[in-house]
Design a protein that fits this description.
heterodimer; A: alpha+beta; Ubiquitin-like (UB roll); Fumarate Reductase Iron-sulfur Protein, Chain B, domain 2; 2 domains; five-stranded mixed β-sheet; 13% strand; B: mainly alpha; 3 helical TM bundles of succinate and fumarate reductases; two-stranded antiparallel sheet; 4 helices
């Protein structure tokens, strides 16, 4: 019995030989327990070694293998072929990012935005190591844990029409991570992050389309994070205006 | 390196159901804005005197304007219902590790909405 196969239409871009991307069709082996990444690896190993793409862990942790699958941003390691079989699957690089080669996108913009929100614990006063660690109760952990699950896969940027239309938008994942540290009881960096967040290119650019939350593979809810930041920034602004003696 | 930037089509909002529903939600604001302008004109006509005010009321009671009012009502209801559905993601109330469930937050807003609407109906009916 011949092996079952599935058709993959893969967007290819080889800047040294073509002006714009074109689709190339591959016939990959099909197995019921294979994900799209398995098929792409099969193509790379047995059909066309020139195909370029990013991947690493194969288990939805590293966030490297995000691609557009039939127009939806998904992790190729977590998308089963059987959900599409026997229809062909169209694989493209993540939308809203420049294409470097084939399925590889240029992610510099995201990396810069991620750094700009200082996603680490900021302290006004560092206590000496001899005083021990900054301790936290389970309730304090629960306050931000959901937003700490982000794997930086950038699917949310690909789903966001605001980012598509205005590339200056800080974007869902970076703001969600800023929110995660703002909520952390050990952190004191809210006012530093506010310089980036509370701007027209930060939280106020978001119109709450909500697709970032829909496509997030780890249920971070970036859209919720952005609106929560809007709410807390506004509340703080009113507090500052109405009760200036209170300080922060 | 010569990265390729893909253009964003002007029809992007037709590509996904979520995008389309979002545009629909934003569009409701236009209808509500027009309705509020009509209301401001009503106040202006009132300041001009009884005759002007009554002429304007007749205009608002014309079949076309009543049809428009119905469209505005549908738009306002759509906006309210979709907005209330999003609220639990924005208003997070925690009691220790426990997070107040969505249904209570949405429910409280519906109760407040109905109460305020009922109050307005009572005020109008009494007047």
């Amino acid at each position: 019995m011949s092996k079952a196969t599935i058709t993959l239409e893969v967007l290819r871009y080889r800047p040294e030989q073509e002006q714009e991307p074109t689709f190339q069709t591959y016939e990959s082996e099909y197995r019921e327990d294979w994900v799209v990444l398995d098929a792409i690896n099969h193509i790379k190993d047995h059909i066309d070694g020139t195909l370029s793409y990013r991947w690493s862990c194969r288990m939805g942790i590293c966030g490297s293998c995000g691609v557009m699958i039939n127009g939806e941003p998904k992790l190729s390691c977590a998308t089963f072929l059987r959900d599409y079989y026997p229809n062909p699957i169209r694989v493209e690089p993540l939308a809203n990012f420049p294409i470097e080669r084939d399925l590889v996108i240029v992610m510099d913009d995201f990396m810069e935005k991620l750094t700009s929100v200082k996603p680490w614990i900021l302290r006004e006063d560092e206590k000496p190591i001899s005083e021990g660690e900054y301790r936290q109760t389970p309730a304090e952990l629960a306050g931000y844990k959901q937003f700490s699950m982000c794997i930086n896969c950038m699917l949310c940027y690909s789903a966001c029409p605001v980012y598509a239309l205005d590339p200056h938008f800080t974007g869902p994942a970076a703001i969600a991570l800023a929110h995660r540290y703002n909520l952390d009881s050990r952190d004191q960096g809210r006012s530093w992050r506010e310089e980036v967040l509370s701007t027209e290119e930060g939280i106020w650019a978001c119109t709450y389309v909500g697709t970032c939350t829909v496509v997030c593979p780890v249920n971070v809810d970036p859209a919720g994070a952005i609106q929560q930041e809007k709410l807390s920034t506004t509340t703080e602004w009113f507090t500052d205006v109405l009760m200036p003696w209170k300080g922060r | 390196m010569r990265p390729f930037v893909r253009p964003v089509p002007t029809t992007w909002w037709l590509k996904r159901r979520v995008y389309f529903l979002f545009i629909l939600r934003e569009l409701t604001s236009v209808f509500i804005a027009v309705f509020l302008i009509l209301f401001l004109v009503l106040l202006y006509q009132l300041s001009l005197g009884r005759a002007a005010y009554e002429t304007y009321l007749d205009f608002l009671a014309s079949p076309g304007m009543i049809a428009f009012a119905v469209v505005v009502l549908i738009a306002a209801l759509y906006h309210t219902v979709t907005w209330f559905a999003l609220l639990p993601n924005i208003v997070v109330i925690r009691i220790g590790e426990y997070r107040v469930p969505s249904i209570l937050i949405v429910g409280a807003n519906y109760v407040a909405w109905i109460a305020v609407s009922a109050l307005i109906v009572v005020i109008i009916m009494r007047g």
